[in-house]
């Protein structure tokens, strides 16, 4: 059972209220596809992923970035039970999408970097720590249903 | 041994030129974050009285580390050779678990993203990530 302090809850709420979903989602996923190119294996139907510029301009990538961020928002709204909230998503990723769960960490690393750039000085060490904790819980929940 | 292409090296050198003199300060921030975000790393610094973000030992040591990274940029064509004595230091004296190099590299990237939001593009990010990974490998060279 994950324990969240008041500071952690308000910090996460704050982050989600400050970030622009339409910027952060697409930026994080395109960064993941560029920095860790093997992750492109899951997006064969997305069209042109030939180089960084193509990935950044790709509308399917951008749309998917938003989907991912909405998923994170779901976790934020259910912070006391992310594991249960993500049970179906975990099954989806493991049984249908067949995503190697190690890739989740790659995406969350990119998310931390993108949110850091968005928030600048507000992304203090303390805020950074809380965000990484939140992302770690999300990743663990997504890994849960894998066998 | 390294997989850094000529292009990667160019990108790293060009970006690091922009970082310039702020390297020391960025290093202090990166180290401070390491200790806060990954508290298990504090075990390596039990000899410091104060491990909080603004403290003198954290500031000084963060600068030392980042100056090492700057130095490595200059030695980018032969990291293994150039970092030999540093590797021996980390392997035989400091004995830092190399897994921590990865964590520290992530913090460096976060700090770069915060301070260079426009210049730290995805293309720069991948080159820097590769460079820091190569640096970590060179540093771990003498471990066993």
Notes on the protein architecture:
The complex is a heterodimer of chains A (147) and B (144). With 147 residues, chain A is mainly alpha-helical. Chain A contains eight helices and no strands. The relative contact order of chain A is 0.17. With 144 residues, chain B is mostly helical. Chain B has helices spanning 6-19, 23-37, 56-74, 79-82, 84-94, 99-115, 122-140. The two termini of chain B are 17 Å apart. The model of chain B has no long low-confidence stretch (mean pLDDT 94). The chains are: A mainly alpha (147), B mainly alpha (144). At the A-B interface, α2, α3, α7 and α8 of A face α2, α6 and α7 of B.
Extract low-pLDDT stretches of chain B: none
Taken from the alpha-carbon principal axes, the silhouette of chain B is globular
- Name the average pLDDT of chain A: 95
Number of helices of chain A: 8
Largest interface: A-B, 23 and 20 residues
- Which percent range describes the beta-strand content of chain B? under 5%
Through-space gap between termini of chain A: 21 Å
- How big a fraction of the residues of chain A is strand? under 5%
Question: Could you tell me the radius of gyration of chain B in angstroms?
Answer: 15 Å
Number of helices of chain B: 7
SSE topology string of chain B:
HHHHHHH
Q: Which class do the helix and strand fractions of chain B yield?
A: mainly alpha
- Oligomeric assembly: heterodimer
Number of strands of chain A: 0
Describe this structure in a few short sentences.
Chain A has helices at residues 6-18, 21-35, 52-57, 59-77, 82-85, 87-96, 102-119, 125-143. Chain A has 147 residues and is an all-alpha fold.
